[in-house]
Amino acid sequence: MTNRFGSAPGPAVFEALAHAAFARIPAPFAEHLDGITVHVEEFADAETLRAVGLEDPFTLTGLYHGRPMSEESVWASGEFRPRITLYRQPLLAEWCETGVTLEDLVTHVVVHEVGHHFGLSDAQMHALEESTR
User: Fold this and answer.
1) Which residues contact 90 (CB under 8 A, 6 or more apart)?
2) What is the pLDDT of residues 106-133, one digit of tens each?
3) Where are the domains of the chain?
4) Which of 15, 83, 91, 92 could form a cystine bridge with 37, CB 3.0-4.6 A?
5) Which residues share a beta bridge with 85?
6) In the predicted model, is pLDDT for residue 23 greater than 70?
């Protein structure tokens, strides 16, 4: 007997889920998300994994790149705009292992990374995630 499964959702699906999660983030946070971009990569590269202190590429599902709002300054220039990178393969693996919907997993990662943009604590990130449901 052969089991056949459909194709795994591609990067465009992940981007669409991320943008849907952004759309559900409530005020006053939503007013400060302009300019944050979303990128989808298969895995974090070795340099990124080293920078965050991880070895297994399946352990990193997303990453915020940028300066938290609490550290922004009019004197800072020439920096890239803030961005969130979603790592597709680790998210797919977690989706298969946990049974949590892909939408919920992507929302969780997006909200967590947005929390880094605001310099929020884990408890505050959890509260923000609850408000997106």
Assistant:
1) 43, 57, 58, 59, 60, 61
2) 999 998 888 877 777 777 777 777 777 6
3) 11-131
4) 83
5) 39, 63
6) yes
8-state DSSP, 25: P
Please report the pLDDT score of residue 1 as a whole number: 46
Residue, of 38 and 7, whose pLDDT is higher? 38
Amino acid at 64: Y
Distance (Å) of CA 68 to CA 3, 30, 61, 116:
46, 15, 19, 6
Closest CA to 126 of 110, 112, 114, 107: 112
pTM metric for this prediction: 0.81
What is the C-alpha separation between 103 and 123, in angstroms, rounded? Answer: 21
Average pLDDT over residues 9-33: 88
Tokens 């605001």 locate to: 118
Check whether 78 has a pLDDT greater than 70. no
What contacts 78, CB < 8 A, 6 or more positions away? none
Q: 11-131 has which CATH code?
A: 3.30.2010.20
